[in-house]
Amino acid sequence: MTEHFSGSVGENRETLENRSKQVLDGFPVSVAVGRGLEKLLIDRTEFDTESKTEVLELREKVFRNSSALMRQHEQSGAYDSDSSENDRLETYRKTLAGLIGIKAENLSQQLYADLPPFQQVLKFRKITGEGLLHRYNCAQVQGLLLRSESITVKLPDSSAASMRQLLKYLRFNKLLAKISFDHKKRESLVMEIDGPLSLFLQTQKYGLNLANFFPAVLHQPEWELDATVRIHKNRTYILQLDQSCGIRSHLRQFLAYVPEEIQKLSQQLAKKLPDWILSTSNDFVPLSGENICFPDYLLKHISGKKVPLELFHNWHSAPLLNRLSQLDVQKEAPLLIGINRSLLKNKDVANKLESSSYFSRFGFLFREVPTAAMLLPRLETWLRN
Fold it and tell me: Pick from 252, 190, 194, 185: which is nearest to 218 by CA?
């Protein structure tokens, strides 16, 4: 399978899929597995999907000439009624092709050149057979996490550098986790993440983000994952995995990715608030109850003051309620919090924000992304604090 896809550049999709089918037909016992492997390889294949002007122009010519030709034959009765339907269709195609100026045998192929079966393979990201099996097994776990209610990840032996890498993936996928120390093993960290089935809104988007996060866990030297998975309406199962499962991550280590919205905010700050610099945060903030918060970003003032910033998006209602409860009992102000306005639709969140003394001083609302204007009053309050 990997050899067929590796040599497919320049072919059309129909040819590639036909050759893939021939391989799969040789292994009829494992049809489901074979189709899964094929799907993963297709995901690594780039097809030419752009609408071509020449194809659109050809269709216009075909429709225009076909309409005129059919009207002509309706008036003259030129077709032989005794000939077969296939013969009449072939005569029609040859006449139409002649009017347009192309060969009849090329008419269908050129007419549908931009449809999926005729799309050309532009690029394939190569992978070994062993690598494909690891990718398949990883995808099996990701599929289960799409149906999860809750996930707990334990990290018994994670260095600061490894933990930062994992948190970058967490932020990249806009996930929030309750992070604390393991009561039994003080050095071990525990991450508790809500599953998509625990939410009421945008469960598919959140589920995909959560599934995309799992390969990052595989980079950790030691880890344990427990997830409550609902496969049927009233039946739940427990998924338990650790590093002994042997699955390798297909993702490279995350380095310096900065989301586009944060790049824009950083540019705004440079223009409107030049005394502040926005960067990613590499350190954790201790909270009440032996909990830990890894803020999304860090704002640095020329005076030397540092302001951690944590953002809550529209699927973060439960983590937000938990965070507000923690912050309202804090003696000091550990961080700023930005909250997407869509969360106000949740009555519990709206009531909590209204009664939260911490949010009134160190919180703000945003729509799509935070802006410098939203941050300014909170930053000034922080400097005076």
Answer: 252
Token pair, residue 124, equals: 């394939």
CATH code for the domain in which residue 230 is found: 3.30.70
Residue 288 dihedral angles phi and psi, to the nearest 5°: -65, 155
pLDDT tens digits for 7-37?
999 999 999 999 999 999 988 778 889 999 9
Structural domain contains residue 167:
yes
Contacts 24+ apart (CB under 8 A), 358-361: 358/324, 358/327, 358/328, 358/330, 358/333, 359/324, 359/327, 361/333
* Per-residue pLDDT reduced to its tens digit, 193-220: 876 666 555 567 778 888 999 999 998 8
Same domain, 270 and 172: no
Q: Is residue 366 part of a domain?
A: yes
Long-range contacts from 290-296, C-beta under 8 angstroms, 24+ separation: 290/180, 290/181, 291/178, 291/179, 291/180, 291/326, 292/179, 292/180, 292/181, 292/189, 293/179, 293/323, 293/334, 293/335, 294/167, 294/170, 294/179, 295/335, 296/171
Residue entry with tokens 């597995």: 33
Residue 253 belongs to a domain: no
Tokens of 158: 């994670």
Positive/negative CA dihedral, 343, 347, 351, 354: positive
Kindly state whether residues 43 and 63 are assigned to the same domain. Answer: no
Angle value at C-alpha 172, between 265 and 320, nearest 5 degrees? 80
Distances (CA, A) of 302 to 263, 273, 307, 325: 20, 11, 12, 31
Query: Residue 103 belongs to what domain range?
Result: 53-113
The values of phi and psi at residue 291, to 5°, are: -95, 160
Distances (CA, A) of 100 to 58, 111, 119: 8, 12, 23
